[in-house]
Amino acid sequence: MKTPFVTKELIEDITKTYPTPFHIYDEKGIRANARRLYEAFSWNKGFKEYFAVKATPNPSILKILHEEGCGTDCSSMAELVMSEKVGIKGNDVMFSSNDTPIEEFAFAGKIGATINLDDITHIPFVEEACGGIPKRVSCRYNPGGVFTLGESKEGFQVMDNPGDAKYGMTKAQLMEAYKTLKEKGAEEFGMHAFLASNTLSNEYYPALAKILFELAVEIKEVTGVQLSFINLSGGVGIAYDPKGTENDIYAIGEGVRKVYEEVLVPAGMGNVSIFTELGRFMMAPYGHLVTKAIHEKHTYKEYIGVDACAANLMRPAVYGSYHHITVLGKEDAPLDYTYDVTGSLCENCDKFAIDRKLPKIDMGDYLVIHDTGAHGFAMGYNYNGRLWSAELLLREDGSVTEIRRAETIDDYFATLDGFWDAI
Length: 423
Prior knowledge:
The protein has helices at residues 8-14, 27-40, 59-67, 77-86, 102-110, 122-130, 171-183, 204-223, 249-264, 280-283, 315-319, 409-413; strands at 22-26, 48-52, 71-74, 93-96, 114-117, 136-140, 147-152, 155-160, 188-192, 229-231, 273-276, 287-298, 302-306, 325-327, 337-342, 351-358, 366-369, 390-394, 400-404. By secondary structure, the protein is an alpha/beta fold. Strands 1, 12, 13, 14, 15, 16, 17, 18 and 19 form a 9-stranded mixed sheet that branches. An 8-stranded parallel barrel has the order 2-3-4-5-6-9-10-11, surrounded by 5 helices. Strands 7-8 form a two-stranded antiparallel sheet. The relative contact order is 0.15.
């Protein structure tokens, strides 16, 4: 079972000020997790986590993670601006984007972000945007094919299709890119690759590291370019289902260390820094979507209607993703009712759970939807005119702070200012 980091009593107190639905994050859990990550990779002197802003784009969250030593991984102008406003810039920002507008490269260059080139054709584009090639630059690698890793009773632990992904360069393009960048004045080089998403295997990062470390040695031999950092990107997942097995970040760090010493150290590359760009692993378990049961329906199935909807958390509706649900105050009650838990959108897929075994739910009960700290609020939208919820932060001292207010009807119509008279 998953245990919420909030209680019924706390939520009853919070809702006196902030009505449901809302996302709430656990500062204590966030900080402790960041410290575990850094401890797991403490063997690498240059290790740095660049938090994937797209997972949880909130300045208060970025500030907490920055205080714990993390930089930011940005993929858009808004994410770059948010990082800069929080005081995160220079080498603390990794700009990993694709199909990038020229003004975004220009701004990344202005704040000193490390630009991670998605394609070899972007070299002259960046050169124009930044008034020359930056001294520090990275290239994104795509090995192609299908990446698989091991098998379990449930099937492949990791399986993804880099060859069908729009990201990154081929090996031949990568070699040519480093030669060109060096000729154009780049002095510090890195490499980045992302092969699989939300992996539940302690072997994923070590397997990816082996691919990249061996390639780094080859790059040095072929081009004369010695990489100063290798970015393992994201992909380390979490067990959304409580029956799943969580990753062990210490085992993952140790696995990467072994490959590092087997491949890079003998090649005279024992000073290469290891970077990560984790989002889901850093934040997902430390966020809840809190919602209230407001309707029940008895037709061909038993339905519980809540005041949140897929506009607040789209993963179950779009991906069929599992998110565990706790009914606050009924944590120890028998799971002897079967419900579809639904939202209010005019879409039949607007369901947080289908045929889920839960305790009897009464109107007014508060439901905690777990693991929404990443790709939860961030993927919200306004379909059916539903408004964005508030984001709250449960501080280490037990107090609660609003870190983003709920959207209002006036906000929804704000971009129509000046248009009403023409209608």
